[in-house]
Amino acid sequence: MAASEKSTIERVRATLARRNRAERRFKNFGRAAVLVGLVFLVLMFVNIILTGYSAFWQTFVKLPVHFDAQVIDPGGAGDPETLGSADYGALVKTSVRSLFPEVSGRRHRRDLGQLVSRGTVFQLRRMVLEDPSLVGSRAEVWVPADDDYDMLHKGNVDRTLPEADRRLSDRQIGWFDRLADDGRVESRFSATFFTAGDSREPELAGIRGAAMGSFFTLAVTLLLSFPLGVATSVYLEEFAPRNRVTALIEVNINNLAAVPSIVFGLLGLAVFINLFGLPRSAPLVGGLVLTLMTLPTIIIAGRAALKSVPPSIREAALGVGASKLQMIVHHVLPLAMPGMLTGTIIGMARALGETAPLLMIGMVAFVVDVPQSVTDAATALPVQIFLWLDSPERAFVERASAAIMVLLAFLVAMNALAIVLRRRFERRW
Amino acid sequence: MQRKSVLTAAVVALAVAGLATAASAQSRDYIQIVGSSTVYPFTTVVAEQFGKTTKFKTPKVESTGSGGGLKLFCAGVGVEHPDMTNSSRRIKKSEVELCSKNGVRGIVEMKVGYDGIAVANSKKAKALSLTPRDLYLALAKDVPANADGSKLQANPYKTWKDVNPKLPALKIEVLGPPPTSGTRDAFVELVMDKGCATFSAIKKMSKKPRRAACRTMREDGAFVEAGENDNLIVQKLDANPDAFGIFGFSFLDQNTDKLQGAAINGAKPEFETIADGSYPVSRPLFVYIKKAHLDVIAGMREFLAEYASEKAWGDEGYLTDKGLIPMPKKERAMFSSDVKNLKNLAL
After folding, report:
1. Do residues A109 and A232 both lie within one domain?
2. Burial class (CB within 10 angstroms; exposed 0-12, middle 13-18, buried 19+) of B30
3. DSSP state of B153
């Protein structure tokens, strides 16, 4: 007996150092894993921010515009119809040429016209329509530079390369540098990026349309999936009898949570568009599809939250004479709500980042007009990122990174909200 | 309680009614276009221009791929179906039959221009001058074992020098599009088939074994399917100067500071060489129009007039700024009048 006791302590002592080493090793493995994860995260963020931050600025050029009455309104009638259909392209050409009077030759003049964005024409048109008294006057107007010059100004064009290898010739760069020396070039905050819909000209493209599309889609998703999800989880957890049917339903819900999202897109195409005849590309259909996708997540989170409410609460409520519905509505649901909301927000965050199901229902599309309702044609933020990354113009890469930053900001905000709700309202038992 | 359930029932009924009206009152006030991702960058430019300069709404353009687009296009007549579809290849006979089965009879074909396919590598490496035969020998799964191609063997070539002694001893590594892509179809048709036809015995084979011999790509790592995203291929080429990539000309055009195109049959992929046909790897791009919708959807005629105008698809039109290779003048005039007169498609 005594001998064996001694030998136990000896054994403990003999292995103590080795076991401590094992523990330290395990801790270090854990730290290394966290570190590797963090390094990749930081790399991703740095990469996105470095490519994307410049998209929030846009290069502008100051043009001396003569709103020539001869061009805009030769009759002098001043009705919006005439003002709207005038040849504003000619105004832009004249004003750019007035800056470089020495340039001649068709080819060079054409290049000159591409110094400023193609949107300039619409900008001048809008100015005149808003204020017809401009006709006949002269004004200095700041207009966005073309995307190639924007890239040049932002330093994304290597000037040391041979001329043939650049999108801009020495002559074109010379023009731009002269404008810059004259103080006619300025980098400004790009409001367009937040107020415009999609465009094929990078300098005119914005995320407003996609953001509104995402908003409408998520609104539909939230309105449908939250009540449905809560009702389903309450019924399954509190009322449903435990039998084969409910067991089958449970298995199916858990399965659905793991189904690839594109399958929901196919389902949406077959049911909502082909069978119900809802319009293609509409946030309404997108919301319905994403509802199907997020419902399982919400139901599972909701049931977990209901399960975590201790039975003593239920028994106490029933004990003082509450009906089962009163017990649930007055006592169990309020206590389970933070958990349910967390599940909902995480489900919505997943829905916000989803593109695959939207592909099937036609939301991967070029939509210029900002959607005004759930039945208007729309895209969503992640789809916009995908479409921009697929465009050949280099300026779109920058814009896509900026859109990723906006999307990440939304996701971080939503997840932060989930954490705050949990911290503030969750009760631990 | 009673009142509450009545209220719930009313809300549900309202929601259902809302859905139903949304479905039935679905008259469309914008043009709906689907189809090829290759034509997408051009059609969207016209759509944007059209939306900004006319009183009509901007058409909605979806990027679904040529095949997917034609399938949607041929699904039927009515506002829930698209009005036009982009295609980077000509419509097939089977698709026309599908169309007419679903009641889509009047189809107008509009060729909008050409798109070149470039074989390019990084500027950091040497440019190559290739022929379709070189590319076929470098990329096919089975290549001729003897001079006339009557016997095939698994592709043994490791470097470009093995393929053609005039080329440098550079490892063969080509990134290209997957079989679902229209770019791949065109490449196979314009390069692999031609390269393979330089062997007399293969040329004489019947269609099926010939296609199998010519069109099956290597699977031993020399040819890598790099996905549909051409920008991704561009980035990979920049990072790996030994590799070559196959992608649309507009991506080469936008990245001339990083990439160079290999000459094929002596012609470099450039705007002029593709336009005059001396660069052999180019394909026509089409838009197909549903005649039955012309009088139902507002603005279709005006949109087509914009597309078929000289300031859009002409030699110096705004589409050429985006990398579209214009058709010769005579061809432009022909398609422009076809569209104006709504000439029916004839295969």
Report:
1. no
2. buried
3. E
Our count of domains for chain A comes to 2
**A127 & A250 share domain:** no
CATH value at residue B82: 3.40.190.10
Q: Are residues A277 and A415 in the same domain?
A: yes
**Helix locations, B102-206, DSSP H:** 132-139, 160-163, 182-187, 193-196, 200-204
- For residue B160, is pLDDT > 80? yes
Amino acid letter for position B181: S
Mean pLDDT on B181-192: 85
Asked if B143 and B234 sit in the same domain, the reply is yes
pLDDT-derived band at A4 (thresholds 50, 70, 90) equals low
Nearest residue of B to residue A277 by CA position?
Answer: B23
> Domain end: A125, A156, A190, which one?
A190
From B246, B223, B242, B222, select the one nearest B234 (Cα to Cα).
B246
Tell me the mean pLDDT in the region B97-118: 92
Banded pLDDT at B1 (limits 50, 70, 90): very low
Share of chain A above pLDDT 90, in %: 49
Residue A5: its pLDDT value, please?
Answer: 62
- Residue ending a domain, among B232, B247, B282, is B282
A122, A277, A397: residue with CB nearest B23? A277
Q: What percent of chain B has pLDDT over 70?
A: 93
Radius of gyration of chain A (CA): 31
Complex ipTM: 0.78
Residue B265 neighbours by CB distance under 10 Å: 14
Which DSSP state fits B292?
Answer: G
The pLDDT mean for chain B works out to 86
Domain that holds residue A185: 60-190
Asked whether residue A9 is assigned to any structural domain, the reply reads no
Q: What is the domain count for chain B?
A: 2
The CA distance from A187 to B86, in Å, is 38
The 10s digit of each residue's pLDDT in B237-267 is 988 888 999 988 888 888 888 889 999 998 9
The answer to whether A364 and A383 are in contact (CB under 8 A) is yes
Does one domain contain both A85 and A157?
yes
Residue B264 distance to chain A (closest CA, Å) = 19
At B19, is the pLDDT very low, low, confident or very high (cuts 50, 70, 90)? low
pLDDT, tens only, B136-151: 999 998 888 887 778 8
**Closest by Cβ to B22, choosing from A167, A278, A397:** A278
Nearest chain A residue to B54, by CA? A85
Q: How many interchain CB pairs under 8 A, A with B?
A: 101
Residue A291 CA neighbour count, 13 Å, CB half: 21
pLDDT digits (tens, 9 = 90+) for A194-223: 999 999 889 999 999 999 999 999 999 999
Checking if the pLDDT of A167 tops 90, the result is no
Q: Which long-range contacts (CB under 8 A, 24 or more apart) does B274-280 make?
A: B274/B114, B274/B116, B274/B249, B274/B325, B275/B114, B275/B325, B275/B326, B275/B328, B279/B116, B280/B132, B280/B190, B280/B191, B280/B194
Q: Hunting for tokens 């003999």 — which residue is that? A: A14
Would you say residue B11 lies in a domain?
Answer: no
- Best A390, A396, A397, A401 residue to mutate vs chain B (most B CBs within 10 Å): A390
The whole domain housing B293 covers 27-114+283-340
Other CB atoms within 10 A of residue A204 CB? 24
Distance CA A310, CA A396 (A): 54
Which residue has tokens 């390369």? A161
Choose one of B261, B282, B303: the last residue of a domain: B282
Cα gap A373→A183, rounded to integer Å: 44
Last residue of a domain, one of A131, A162, A190: A190
One domain, residues B109 and B241: no
Q: Which residues of chain A neighbour B318 with C-beta distances below 8 Å?
A: 118
- Distance, in Å, from the CA atom of B65 to the CA atom of A48, rounded to the nearest integer, reads 29
Tokens of A182: 């004259």
